[in-house]
Amino acid sequence: MTATMEELSTGTDHERVLLCRDPEAGYRAVIAIHSTAAGPAAGGTRYWTYPSEDEAITDALRLSRGMTYKNAMARLPLGGGKSVILRDGKDEDREALFRAHGRFIESLGGVYMTGEDVGTRPADMEHVGKETKHVAGVIGDPSPYTAKGVVRAMMATALHRWGSQDLAGRTIAIQGCGNVGFHLAQELRAAGARLVVADVDPERVRRTVDAAGAQAVPPEEIYDAAADVFAPCALGGVLNAETIPRLRVEIVAGAANNQLLEEADGDRLLARGILYAPDYVANAGGVILLAGREVLVWDEEVMLARIDGIYDTLLEVLGLAQDQKVPPHIAADRLAERRLASLAAERRASI
User: Which tens digit of pLDDT belongs to each residue from 231-256?
Assistant: First the structure.
């Protein structure tokens, strides 16, 4: 059976959305390219089990748009894209699967580059890299840098809410103890915070409890934890009409993508007096690392300074939200669109 690529019509502002299949490799994926206005679309590859193909497409659309805004907010000369590979639960040949993914990416001629995301790891990117040069993340784990950026985001929201960026003595509830959540817990413990953690994987919880002195609660109870900050670090859509009323925090700042299930959830947080750090601002540390190290060839000092700059960007967003009397996620979108227009103009001028 031959590999196929089908162009999808989604009714969105995406430049291209592709449904890719290679039956021999057991590969079925969506590659969504939202924008190349500022540069090649960049965004990771997610490997996940979806209830349906339509839900995988929806996830790819939301994630790729988020990458456009994330890269613009970080002032990276990159557009936004995302891949989701549908996991079917059968025995898998990961090399065949990810090499097939690499071939499809290569066929796009450089308009899209990828890296790690949920469900993928450096070894998978090495397989992708056997078929295309348009891949990053094969020389290191970006999650510690994502965690550093989230800490800076928390400090900015703390300053805006409490008048002090100091997290010592604050209680932070972390949902998700994967790579980023684990490193975030360690960073926060070093900052003197108290931690409550939850994950569907008991081993991840145990590791985080041992490393960061955290208190563990069952996954469903994390929304009810009495804390100062709630840090979503698992999957998206966790802030919604059912969970927001349960939160007992003053701030939400975490690493997960697409934390708001729908636009109205940002308004629900605002109505409850909960300060929200828009996810694509807070979690940009990993993409700054990968773009800086493997695309823009920055040294470590420059990359760390850019990640540190998440603090100032978030303060700008929160100030804009306050001045314009809108929720932070709306203010972030407006600022991202301005920065995207500026980056696109710079790109046009350089051609």
Answer: 999 989 999 999 999 999 999 999 99
Assess whether 154 and 116 both reside in one domain. Answer: no
Helical packing angle, 143-162 and 310-324, nearest 10°? 40
Note the pTM of the prediction, 2 decimals.
0.90
Beta carbons of 177 and 204 less than 8 angstroms apart: yes
Q: Which residues 6+ apart lie within 8 Å of 35 measured at CB? A: 13, 14, 15, 41, 68, 79, 80, 340
Please tell me whether residues 298 and 159 are part of one structural domain. Answer: yes
Q: Could you tell me which residues come within 8 angstroms of residue 164 by beta carbon, excluding any fewer than 6 positions away?
A: 158
Report the CATH number at residue 246: 3.40.50.720
266 domain residue, yes or no: yes
User: What would the DSSP string read from start to end of 144-192?
Assistant: HHHHHHHHHHHHHHHHHHHS----TT-EEEEE--SHHHHHHHHHHHHTT
Structural domain includes residue 93: yes
Structural domain harbouring 187 = 143-286+293-338
Q: By percentage, how much of the chain surpasses pLDDT 90?
A: 90
DSSP lists the bridge partners of residue 17 as 32
Each residue's pLDDT tens digit, 128-151: 999 999 998 666 678 999 999 999
For 231-266, the DSSP string reads EE-S-S--BSTTTGGG-B-SEE--S-SS-BSSTHHH
Q: Is 82 a catalytic residue?
A: yes
Residue whose pair of structure tokens reads 């710079």 in the numeric block = 346
- How many domains would you assign to the chain? 2
- Residue 128, SS3 per DSSP: helix
Alpha helices in 6-93 (DSSP H): 53-73
Residue 346 lies in a domain: no
Distance from the Cα of residue 274 to its chain's centroid: 21
| Residue 214, amino acid | A
Q: Which two tokens stand for residue 54?
A: 């339509």
What percentage of the chain has pLDDT greater than the value 70? Answer: 99
- Residues contacting 342, CB < 8 A, separation 6+: none
Catalytic one of 82, 90, 133, 148: 82
